[in-house]
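Ops channel
N.P.: pipeline sanity check, posting one input/output pair.
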């Protein structure tokens, strides 16, 4: 079973976007908790404390102990809304849990032996993580913190699937996930693209093109000069053939 985290919450009465913005300016995180056959309740947490807890990966797949005054309630994280560009939590959705009801969670997958994998160390391949978490269903007491998958024996162009993950007792996955049996990790050949050579070829092509244009320009200039010379010669010849007659006295 994964670790437990204790979070101190306060009840909040004001709701809506305006109220949530005011709470955030005060260093609070608006939240809601629902489930277990009870009405949803609006809560708020200290933003910095929540942010510190989120640095622990286990937080997302663990049982949280939510304390409000002298009462406490077990819950799990269902959704976290974050600011798109700032390190700020905007809203948290929590689901109450009860001991005898199964819950559905996304559990992270940890891959072991990546650097020592046969396909990497001996064959120069690269590891591709195709899945980083798996949706499971279980009772709260059976909730795993994460799955470990050893890939040290994986060779080039080989892969492991969902069926290769060892599920602890009491943990299940849906029939649809079983049927799909998606690949979760693979090792493939590293394909290098030498950008410098491509750039050099493009530059050489551009230089050749410019040289051709310049050559055309020079040829045109020479042609124009030659044409002008020929025109002048024609005019001089014309003058020689038709000399001016002297006026008779």
């Amino acid at each position: 079973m994964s670790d437990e985290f204790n979070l101190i919450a306060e009840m909040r009465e004001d709701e809506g976007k305006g109220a949530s913005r005011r709470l955030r300016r005060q260093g609070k995180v608006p939240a809601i908790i629902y489930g277990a056959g009870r009405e949803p309740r609006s809560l708020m947490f200290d933003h910095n404390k929540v942010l510190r807890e989120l640095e622990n990966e286990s937080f997302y797949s663990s049982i949280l102990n939510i304390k409000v005054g002298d009462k406490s309630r077990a819950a799990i994280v269902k959704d976290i809304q974050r600011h798109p560009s700032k390190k700020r939590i905007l809203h948290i959705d929590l689901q109450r849990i009860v001991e005898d009801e199964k819950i559905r969670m996304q559990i992270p997958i940890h891959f072991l032996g990546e650097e020592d994998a046969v396909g990497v160390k001996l064959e120069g391949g690269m590891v591709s993580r195709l899945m980083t978490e798996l949706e499971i269903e279980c009772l709260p007491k059976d909730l795993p913190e994460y799955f470990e998958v050893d890939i040290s024996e994986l060779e080039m162009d080989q892969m492991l699937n969902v069926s290769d993950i060892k599920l602890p007792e009491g943990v299940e996955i849906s029939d649809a996930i079983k049927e799909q049996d998606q690949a979760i990790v693979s090792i493939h050949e590293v394909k290098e693209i030498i950008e410098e050579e491509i750039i050099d070829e493009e530059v050489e092509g551009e230089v050749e093109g410019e040289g051709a244009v310049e050559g055309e320009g020079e040829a045109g200039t020479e042609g124009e000069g030659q044409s002008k010379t020929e025109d002048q010669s024609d005019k001089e010849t014309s003058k020689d053939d038709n000399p001016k007659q002297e006026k008779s006295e």
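N.P.: looks fine end to end. Residues 204 and 210 are 10 Å apart (CA to CA).
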